[in-house]
Protein 1
Amino acid sequence: MIDPSDALLLARIQFAFTVSFHFLFPAITIGLASYLAVLEGLWLRTGREDYMNLFRYWIKVFALVFGMGVVSGIVMSYQFGTNWAVFSDRAGPIIGPLMAYEVLTAFFLDAGFLGVMLFGMKRVGKGLHFAATLMVALGTFMSAFWILSVNSWMQTPVGFAVNANGQFISAGSWLAIIFNPSFPYRLAHTLSAAYLTTAFMVGAVGAWHLLKDRANPRARLMFSMAMWMAAIVAPLQIVLGDAHGLNTLEHQPTKVMAMEGHFESHPEGAPLILFGIPNSEKGRVDYAVEIPKLSSLILKHDLNAPMQGLDTVPKADQPPVGIVFWSFRVMVGLGFLMAGLGILSLWARAKGRLYDWKWLHRFALVMGPSGLIAVLAGWVTTEVGRQPWTIYGVLRTADSASPLAAPAVAMSLLAFILVYFAVFGAGVFYILKLMSKSPGIHEPPPSQVPQMAAGTLPVTALRTGTASTK
């Protein structure tokens, strides 16, 4: 139950709500920007118009998702100054420069080339337009790079000292801070998750249109490309996830204990608990379905390797086990389903049934939002598993919040919920409407702005982004 008088809990819920909503959009734009670059590159190389039609089809979705991601991201910076002012003051000397690097790299790239990418197809040369698309894709990567560096440092803080004012400052090497111990694993895992998110969204749209018309060449093309990505990246993601898990075991063992549901230590091999109901009060997993010693084999590559449990961790330093336990299983379960769909698509391709096997298309359609659900579950595992720390091991969440009254936080949380569901709900509805339309033979660009004879446009056309050709 939520205590309405608990300002800290309300502030955590507010940040969790807004950041979860926000991350849905970058998870799409990171992969979709690269997909658009691939489509345009293939069009330039082959001259096949289907690639350009798909480019124009998906660039509309990209523009909308990108815009909603920017708007929802602005809110995050304000919360650091309102609900988490103590954290901002103490961690600002390290977090601030890293966030500034994101602005100087990612935002500048996107600001400089996004307009050319969206509206410059007929205004600049093909090579320059392709370069703009590549720069936008690079910008999304750079944004992920810096944001994940910040988050990873909060998970595995290194290279810092504490000054007389209690602030975290660089101890001399910014490279140690940027490339902290968990950053490479987190970057690889998150980027591959973003590519899978896009692949399954594109695959679901392709499957939807194949179910209506299996002869549609553009639907066939997008579905085929998506299934190749699923077949290659989904198994790779499982390997990357395993490496990330081993890194987490080394640097954040308490989080892994919660993920595995290990309330008790196991001196001669820990079981892998598949399902159950974590009972934190009694320190056990009720109704557990487990495989003996398999957790030790996975985590330490030894069936009899000892594994410590939460009984070795003070109660005040333990995360909410139930949330972490189940969010981890949702993420892993969806990951294996993604790999299963990818493998199934290879079998269908080998049998020549990739475009006419309706059950495969229905499976792909159902899996459309799986990437978004999986990344949310992954972030819940990461962030809730870090509790009760904001900066792992050195700054507690309870010591990071602003001294605000609970009613003020509750009112802002309620306002966020209402505005987000109204504004972004309308945006998502429009995106789904765009996806429901089959990509045409001559797909129009995001905004048709025809040239006037004198090279000018009426004022009304400039305001609306369109002009009549009659």
Note: DSSP finds 14 helices and six strands in the chain.
Protein 2
Amino acid sequence: MTWHGPTFRISDGERIDGAWCLVWRRHDLLDEYVVEHLFVYADGKIGYGGHDSTDLAGLERLLATGKITLDPPEAREQRERRDGAPKRSKWESRYPEPRTDEGFVLEVADEILRLAGRPTTADRCLDAVRAHTAEPTEERRLLLRDAYLAVPAHRRVYLLGDMDRQDRPLRMLLTDLGEAVDGDGPVATEDMHRDAFAYLADLTEYIERAEERRAVPYADDPAGAPVPPVVLNEAVYPRGWPAEPGRFVLRNDYDAPFAYAGRSYPTVFHAYWALSAADPADHDRITAAATAREARELGGGAVRRAGWPGERLAVMADLLRAKFDQHPRLAEVLLATGEAAIVHTGTSEGPFWRDEGPRGGRNWTGRLLELVRSELRRARSGQTPAECTAATALRAATRIGSQTGENGGA
């Protein structure tokens, strides 16, 4: 079974992570089977058939009654014929055990655990391998056997990540001395147990070394559950901006006059498009535009100055720094977004600057807001507001001054 994702649903304002796979559902009116998406979520809810939902016990009943099946009808018939044929040797088989309805329910239960960030049956089995190799007692071997048997049967061959030996070392070690492995394989001996144990001990050591190596490049990764993103939706206020600042103040069309390189601009839009213009007259005309929308339209129609595509990210970053340095109340709104990713949407900017959901978009405005937020937080912890503002103003003046001298711009 192949699981796809990520997906999610919203419940009481909370994001519930999920995944989905394909099953067959019996269509009651057509009396035939159709392909259906089966959605599984971290809280245990299982969705199918559009608006229908159930839980693990309900899924078990749906499978038992044939309302949902794992294979199309013709495949089921072939499987039933195979089940009636003479059994192949399990020991000699190189394939996973057949997937059954019972095994699929266990697999879904594992997927729910994974989505919830809890150990799956495979995780618990590998933990039991580590415990047994660290202290090889008969009690721990039996606990390992229980953990191994708890894994869905059709998934056991993948436990050790070795597609040559598959799970055979486990099967050999977990078979009591004098018994045939898998019922039709070789008889378990002390030498076989020693060889299987040595393999698992080497594997455990290899995994531990790999985890230590992996911990180095991932040492700075965020800890804990992911924080839901902050989405900056475009909004129109015909009667003027609300008096109480909300997240709308983070957008580039918000009226927040600021000084940058010796000039004053009404909004980030005014400054960005004015500074992009090759002709100083266009710069002044864009700066004097009555609204951010008019500034954007004038700027979009002006000729760009040389080298602008390679500089625009740095210029936008400087403009955002100047805006939030000079407007502490707006900086508080930005800092209040915490560690969340910032997703900037709308139609007032091109896909380079905004997020377009499944259609793409590079979301550079959102990403630069995250950068400025981080700089503000660092500055507040290590510098006084005056020092921070002075440093940012000097940085901006130096950059734009050199650009003006080279390009004859504003």
Note: The mean pLDDT is 89.
Protein 3
Amino acid sequence: MPARSKGEVGARIAYYRSVMRPKMTQQQLAEAACIALGTIRKIERGERGVSDGTLEAIAEALGIGPARLHADRVPAHTRVHDALPALSAALATYDIPEDGPIRPVHELREAVAAAAQWRLGAQYTRIARHLPDLLAELTRAYHAAPAGSRGVLAGLLVRAYRSADAVAYKFGARDLSARLIELMRWAALEADDPLLSATVAYVRTETFFAAHAHGAGLRALEQALDAAPSPVAPSEKAATGALHMRAAVVAGRARDVSAAATHLDKARGLADQVREDVYFGTAFGPDSVRIHEVSVAVSLGDEHVGRALEVASEWKPPKDLPAERRSGFYIELARAQLWSGFSDDAFESLKVARHIAPQHTREHPWVREDAARLRRLKRADVETLTNFAEWCAAI
């Protein structure tokens, strides 16, 4: 058994032993399973492997099925992860695409729009399955088009790259995500559309989140705001407002209270001038800003967390908002509730997030962290919370 598997199995044994009511000690488990205490200790520390017979004896002593101890619950073995190599291959040939069919532009536009809807609906498996071929086809179309007609196709590439990036980023393929963002920046320049460039700046913030370089991320967004067109038309107001919305969250992560408040106020002012909708792939409007107000409060932490609870007590995201954004609201709210000592409410919020967008919720690192913490606190029904923690790979 590989060392990694030993550690995973041992950690699960220790976990299930700790959640027994009453808690089972290593000595009690050893006696119930008829296994030496030293063996149990080594297994839990990941220092020794476990035979099938030993695993069955331990599982029986714990009152659970052996599959709960040896099944690989890490989300790397999903259809999404299996599709990532094909996505990477499509990017590798962005400048030298293979020969193949090319649909008319209007059909490509429809395909890109469908992928954007999958992203907003957190349907990541569909994106992973279809985007490699779509990106390859868009690349062929771009290179086959006359030089003066490539702008539209470059714009479609930006949108398609963004949908692919949602999968790469949320499933932990950070290098692939960074590559996608660089290709988005290249394609946006080719499209020569300042609003598309604003969209790319919005998405690029992921790289700063991943690196915890929040100060640099804030500077990048403020530079993008300086370069954005004056917000006159609704689409321009939405693009600028989305950048302010994102900047407020980044400022919150940087613990810059003043900048967070300034950007949130500007986003709110622009949101009041447009209707809630999806602009250039980003949901923006009064409801989206409310959701980001919760996110900013959680990012700032400490005494600011209460503001997240206040917003949630007065308002809930309407069902016509994109599923990814609504589930994000409840994930953020759960963290605020957990920090404030409302463990039961936090678990309810996590369950709501799961109901709205299962894939988005399952892959969110905060969900795994908070589910694991709730299990340690034992503030909810043990079996229900254990099942949730297993589902999101928190154990």
Note: Confidence is low (pLDDT under 50) at residues 72-77.
